[in-house]
Amino acid sequence: MTLTPHQRTVLNYIGEFQVKRGYSPSLADLALAFGVRSKNAIAKVVNALVREKQIEKDPKGRIKIIEVPDTYEQPQPMVLPLFGPIAAGFATAAEEQAEELVDLENFLVKDRANTFLLRVKGDSMIDAGIQEGDIVIVERGKEPKTGGIVVGILDGEFTLKRLKKDKGKFYLQAENPAYPDMYALEELQVAGTVRGVMRKY
Q: Are both 99 and 133 inside the same structural domain?
């Protein structure tokens, strides 16, 4: 078995989706989860997993439920101690006792089957603290709130912006004055709502 990291990620997502919902994701589900515009691109990954005998399809072309072996162990949550607060201005006395233990998955991800990651390109959201190269945690399936940061689909193009509303009409607003507000010529959809940002130093 020689799966690429991307193929392994898709395979893991399929398994988690099935466990959570009891049925398999469609190509459209997978394309949206991985931020891919073309279902053909995700179909190539699925077909590669079929060739590698990692998954099977039923006569209608749907992904069969993956059988989880009895020896399968759920991954252990990553729980880390939370200390603080820490001053961002003048130094304060060090705290040696952790306030609490934080499960990073529960802290960052509310609905695992409906959560995906996107890497940010560009500087249109810098005033919201989102920089190029950051990874945003996106949850789909929830009703987007006006003023929230969303992954919008504007006339078929994906973009990360703040959802705004004026005179009953929704539009997308950048967090950088160098970028104009974005109104749909035909259609504005929301693929997901940003729940958090990750950055590695």
A: no
